[in-house]
Design a protein that fits this description.
CATH architecture of the largest domain: 3-Layer(aba) Sandwich
Oligomer: single chain
Shape: globular
Number of strands: 14
Radius of gyration: 22 Å
Number of domains: 2
CATH class of the largest domain: Alpha Beta
């Protein structure tokens, strides 16, 4: 028995060594080595920990990378308050709409291969969406032009979500249960009978555009979205814990989701706890269906900051990343104060008085209060992960300026 156990340990060690050799991790460095202040990053972390201590969030992970090196990576609080399970560096979280940049990258991979054209009508790839009208009273109108793939990427399609507004079109989305657990093909069939909220290309309106884009990826590639992600993004970048659901062997690392308790403190968001992520879904939501870890997502971000490559693996052409990360909204249209929108990301066009966002920074957030920002001018990635709903923008507004204050401007 002892000999068998010894050989088993040798085999495990060999597998770990092989894995370590195969997956080159992003290196760590002292902040001062990349022009940042350790003291100021520690001050930022103290504020993050105070949020936990004051029961504003149950747990929080903060990560900062600069010049291709991780200079700050801390987890604090709990992923499960009742069980006293700590939030750890490898805790798996729901990233919700931080799935959108991944789906956008998938589409642009097909663009790089010449298989997808940005200004091609979406109906070319999804015939079910042929003939969409624009909502109007007393009757719907013909669109002045077709919805394009570019419209999906920058949220100017005229689609909506159905859960954030109360327009007649939003009500139709709810009546047809657009965001239910059905295959993307069936979702397209349900969308087909609903008019657009506005003329394509005229307004920024956050919507199910990226879920439709996910089905474009499926139709063009001949792969289901989970398979395409795995083959073309997750495996090449070694994003080993990113998926549409958390497998049985990883569930002890999956964080629970909390929200405000009317009596003070935090309580489990039961409706979120009972929704998906523990079994393979029918609805492969490229708009909000993924789970991930800080380690995985920073690899995705670093690939983008590197203009499409990481550790010798190229995912996108450099010119494609540059195209994705510039503002694509029409003149006079914005996605927030001082913000435009690229092909999958918010892009900051103007200085932000709060210091939360740098000019040229691109990124996005997720419904459970997860955030990322990539600042090319600073060669920096900032990642903040919690599991708190409803969405709380005060978290990055508080922490990100403290990260940027840690930059040594000289």
């Amino acid at each position: 028995m002892k000999a068998r156990r010894k050989w088993a340990l040798v085999l495990v060690a060999a597998c770990l060594l092989t894995s370590a050799l195969w997956a080159k991790e992003i290196p760590f460095a002292e902040p001062e080595a990349v022009g940042m202040s350790s003291a100021k990053l520690e001050a930022m972390q103290a504020v993050a920990e105070k949020m936990v201590d004051e029961k504003k969030v149950a747990g929080i992970t903060t990560m900062v990378a600069r010049h291709g090196k991780i200079v700050h990576f801390e987890a604090y609080g709990h992923r499960d308050i009742d069980e006293r399970w700590l939030m750890e560096r490898d805790t798996i979280v729901r990233i919700y709409s931080m799935s959108k940049p991944i789906t956008s990258v998938a589409a642009m991979i097909l663009y790089d291969r010449g298989m997808l054209q940005l200004d091609e009508p979406v109906e070319t790839y999804i015939p079910a969406l042929r003939g969409l009208k624009v909502y109007g009273e007393p009757e719907c109108a013909e669109p002045k032009r077709k919805v394009t793939v570019r419209d999906l990427l920058r949220h100017t399609s005229g689609l909506t979500y159905g859960i954030f507004g109360d327009t007649p079109v939003d009500k139709m989305y709810r009546q047809k249960n657009i965001l239910s657990d059905v295959p993307l093909e069936e979702m397209m069939q349900r969308l087909a009978g609903i008019p657009l909220l506005h003329q394509p290309g005229t307004q920024f309106h956050y919507s199910v555009s990226t879920d439709v884009l996910g089905h474009v990826v499926e139709r063009v590639s001949g792969r289901t979205l989970d398979v395409f992600f795995a083959e073309n993004i997750f495996k090449p970048l070694d994003m080993r814990d990113t998926a549409f659901y958390v497998s049985e062997d990883k569930r002890d690392r999956f964080s629970r989701c909390y929200g405000p308790d009317p009596d003070g403190g935090l309580k489990l968001t039961q409706e979120i706890e009972g929704y998906g992520f523990l079994r393979p879904p029918k609805f492969l939501s490229g708009g909000g269906g993924l789970t991930s870890t800080a380690r995985d997502y920073v690899r995705f971000c670093q690939m983008l900051l590197n203009k499409g490559h990481l550790d010798g693996v190229r995912i996108l052409e450099a010119e494609t990343v540059e195209e994705m990360t510039r503002d694509h909204l029409p003149p006079g249209v914005n996605a927030g104060q001082g913000a435009g929108f690229g092909l999958g990301f918010s892009v900051q066009r103007q200085p932000d008085p709060s210091g939360q966002v740098r000019v040229g920074e691109y990124g996005w957030a997720g419904a459970a209060s997860t955030f990322f920002g990539i600042s090319p001018q600073d060669d920096t990635v900032v990642l903040i992960l919690t599991q708190y709903m409803p969405f709380n923008n005060e978290i990055p507004k508080t922490l990100k300026p403290l990260v940027y204050a840690a930059l040594n401007e000289n």
